[in-house]
Amino acid sequence: MVDDEQLLSLLAVAQYGSISAAADHLNRGQSAISERLRKLTEEVGEPLYTREVNGVSLTQAGARLIPDIERLRRVLRDIESVIKRRKTLAEGNLNIVSTSLITNYFLIPYLSRFRLEYPHINLHIKSGERYMHDVAAGDVDLFFYEGNSDIPELPGYFDSIPWQDNEIVLVTPLNHSLAQRTDLTFEEIKDYSIIWREPGSGVRNAVEKEFKKRNIILERYIEVADIESVGSLVSAALRQIEWVGGRMLWSGRALNRS
Fold it and tell me: pLDDT tens digits, residue range 104-133?
């Protein structure tokens, strides 16, 4: 089996004219270079060089290998350059999958700093809960998810590291009847329509878990698919649903028990 070290040793001998000079160039002992040449000669099946008074001289068989070995060396150098550039983040791709909440409200300043420091790295960001299950883990470098999100089973080479610790708070318009309260209970909140994310959202999962602990079933809510819509609906005071004659009507009034 021929390997690149055997071929590069023959090339060094051809360039520097002796085994000792080739060994110095390759930072190897003469015995190591001689052993490589011996194995290569066995693989080829005929002599590749002859010893002379002032060094060695390639045979016809050895000389015919040199152009291909030179091309091999150029390819290996290119590969080494690519690996070095990728290790130093001078080029490459960073593939991120994240929930939309984390992308929009937490990641942006970090991504901006990363972009400034590593301008040649391409960023591929897939934002949204659906991507947690629609992408292959092997195609992703980083997952960002909320603690209660459903995520795919990750390969063993992934580490799970806590990154942020935040509270989930109740948000109401300033003129809401609950806006000045500081001692709300889950039992009181259940009487109002709740605006929240789609099933699978980490925040929604966490809130639903707390309601279930208290055996509270929420029957009135507004479900949206992104965090911006939650804020927009709260700001627009679309926070009450009324059922009239089997039809669902939006009400812009302040929340009151019905």
Answer: 888 999 999 999 999 999 999 988 777 776
Q: What is the pTM of this model?
A: 0.56
**Distance between CA atoms of residues 254 and 236, nearest Å:** 11
Non-local (6+) Cβ contacts of 26 within 8 A are: 8, 9, 12, 33
Q: What is the pLDDT of residues 158-190, one digit of tens each?
A: 888 888 888 888 877 777 777 777 788 888 888
Q: In what order do the strands lie in the sheet with 121-127?
A: 121-127, 92-98, 142-144
What is the C-alpha separation between 227 and 128, in angstroms, rounded? Answer: 10
* DSSP letter (8 states) at residue 155: P
Cα 204 to Cα 210: distance, rounded to the nearest angstrom? 10
Burial class from Cβ neighbours inside 10 Å (0-12, 13-18, 19+) for residue 241 reads middle
Q: Are strands 142-144 and 240-244 parallel, antiparallel or unpaired?
A: unpaired
Considering only CA atoms, give the Rg of the chain: 34
- Candidates 9, 55, 57, 63; CA nearest to 32 is 9
Q: Tell me phi and psi for residue 243, to 5 degrees.
A: -105, 120
Tokens encoding 242: 């009324």
Residues in Cβ contact with 187 at an 8 Å cutoff, skipping those fewer than 6 apart = 214, 216
d(CA 19, CA 10) in angstroms, rounded, equals 9
Task: Report the C-alpha gap between 65 and 8 in whole angstroms.
Answer: 11
